Amino acid sequence: LASNGDFKIYRWEDEEAAPTVALTQTVTGRFGDNLALYGSGTETKLYAPANKGSVIKVFSTTDGLTFTEEMEIPITSGWANGGIYVEDPNSIWINAALNNVRKINTAGEVLVELSTLDQYYGNVTIMKGPYGEKLLGMNTNHNNGNRRKVMIYDITEDDANPVFWASAEAGNYENDNGNVTGDLKYSINEDNSLAVFQLASNNVIARWTLTPPVYDNDMKIAFSDTTDIKNWGPHDEASAYTTFAWDETENALRMNDTGWGFLGKRPIYVSEGADYRLSLIVKTTAWTHATNKLNVTLEGIDSNPDTVAISDFSEYTVITLEGTADAGGNGFVKFFGMNDGNPTEAFVKYLFLDDFASGAQIAAAESHLDFGPFVLNSDKTLTAWVYNTGTENLVFERLILGHGDYFAASPAANVVAPGDSTELIVTFTPELEELVTDDLIAVTGGGLVYLTMSGSGYELWPMDWRITAGDAGTEWFWSNANQHFVRSLGYNKLNNHLYVVSRIGGPHIYVLDAATGNLIGELDNTGIAQNGATFHINTVDVTDDGQIFVASL
Q1: DSSP three-state, residue 381
Q2: Which of 2.60.40.2250, 3.40.50.11750, 2.60.40.10, 3.40.50.10890 is the CATH number of 362-456?
Q3: CA 103, CA 225: separation in Å to the nearest integer?
Q4: Residue 168 forms beta bridges with which residues?
Q5: Which residues of 520-530 are buried (b: 16+ CB within 10 A; e: fewer)?
Q6: What is the dihedral of CA 489, 135, 97, 205, to 10 degrees?
Q7: What is the mean pLDDT of residues 115-133?
Q8: Using CA atoms, how far apart are residues 62 and 46, in angstroms rounded to an integer?
Q9: pLDDT tens readout for residues 31-73
Q10: pTM of the predicted model, to two decimals?
């Protein structure tokens, strides 16, 4: 709404009902680009930010039918142009194009600000798994190759320290999405995986299956973004002029020195008296001193810690430091050495600290799987044998693929008895004739296994279904002339239906089967009209008890 008109929100009791007007309010700004709901019944609250404006309006109800303004949340102008998600009434996530992701309270105070996650801004969504997992999802941006992309971050342990978890590229046609609008919704499947529903305006509607991360209290750091870099430095020692950065090409922490003293440390904590195991995947370049080594050890934890020389590791290698925390609980993992003037780099791809380490111990027979050229659109599977050489059961906790686009992997057994073995099963599905590579980290209670893979082709992140621009019968969904006319997605957990607002030839609210993507029909749009509106309907969301709300623009 450009100025001076009625902002309306419509309500459907269910799919069979005719719409009623839940809210009419004369406003002077533009509202309706984004809409979020929280609660159900008489506890339902509606959240509508002003486009390029400095408020989020909150509407509440006493009867569950009609709504009035409860408050305005002040924000810096434009902060909520991209998306809004209400985790609880005092924890509201917002984002905007080329701007930070923020969590604010009802006073507009910033509780969390994530400056590293400004690349994807069509929406912001918090997804909570069945075991307490908490994921932050975003969708689409302005750039070629990213207009159909979903990015997922793990914030289970700390909202302020997101860890990259997964990404997905829907593929096929890529059309312009100048306003960068989109939406994500989710549900929990019977096997406790997540069904993630994606809308990237003018491009695709898709359903993905996402396995949430395993959460525990050990330290598991995948250096897949800049999140952990701030924790590295000389700390309690004088600087050796070693620098620390995230290397996007290596997908790893990179430490650089000028060629003399090398020093890099990160704080760690181990329960006093506990047996621990610290496993890292590391490599080094250009260490040339004939006798001095670049070493990794622990400080402040163990009175007699292991020390491993990594100077000669030109390829990523798993190293393990283990012992008993008899010297205290607080300390450091430490990289140190003295070179002969030749600048050196050391990389860390993964760090796993296992407090109260089990007696399991993992060993691997292979370090590389070469799939070679393979028939397009066919699956090829290779296996890598792993062994439990320890005294307790070995449990697989997590498998991490570096890119996640080309290969799929799983253990033949999740638990391996002492003295027994199992296979890591890796499947490759080529679709293009080009050489691709990836790596796989297996995180287990007995340490880490690191594998590299290569082959001709790639595999998309598993997709259940999609409706993509250009398919027959999709004129209601996309139009280059009206590329922002479909921009909001609602999910009804009571009947597993999706609702898509389309202004193309509209107004229309289409109903899709979330399991199959099939178009079921439309909601009744009888009587939808307003004064001063640019569009009668624009955004949609659904309460937990199945009420459907659609906002005008």
Answers
A1: strand
A2: 2.60.40.10
A3: 20
A4: 150
A5: eebbebeebeb
A6: -30
A7: 77
A8: 13
A9: 888 899 999 999 999 999 998 889 999 999 999 999 999 999 9
A10: 0.51
Q: In the numeric block, which tokens belong to residue 276? A: 């621990």
What pLDDT was estimated at residue 272? 74
Q: Are 435 and 456 in contact (CB under 8 A)?
A: yes
β-strand partners of 451: 440
pLDDT at 377: 65
What CATH topology corresponds to 234-355? Jelly Rolls (2.60.120)
Nearest to 145 by CA among 116, 167, 115: 167
Residue-wise pLDDT for 415-449, tens only, equals: 999 999 999 999 988 766 778 788 999 999 999 99
Pairing of strands 317-324, 275-285: antiparallel
Q: Which token pair is 473?
A: 């019968």
Domain boundary assignment for the chain: 5-217+469-551, 234-355, 362-456
As a 3-state breakdown, the chain gives helix, strand, coil percent values, each rounded to 5, of 0, 50, 50
Class at the top of the CATH hierarchy for domain 5-217+469-551: mainly beta
C-alpha 46/C-alpha 476 separation (Å) is 27
For 482-502, give the DSSP string.
Answer: GTTS---EEEETTTTEEEEEE
What values do phi and psi take at 480, rounded to 5?
-65, -25
**Tens digits of residue pLDDT in 346-357:** 999 999 998 878
Strands (E), 252-339: 252-257, 261-269, 275-285, 295-299, 307-309, 317-324, 330-338
Alpha carbon distance 198, 408 (integer Å): 21
Please name the residue that has the structure tokens 């890598």. 384
Question: CA 269, 273, 279, 284: dihedral to nearest 10 degrees?
Answer: 70
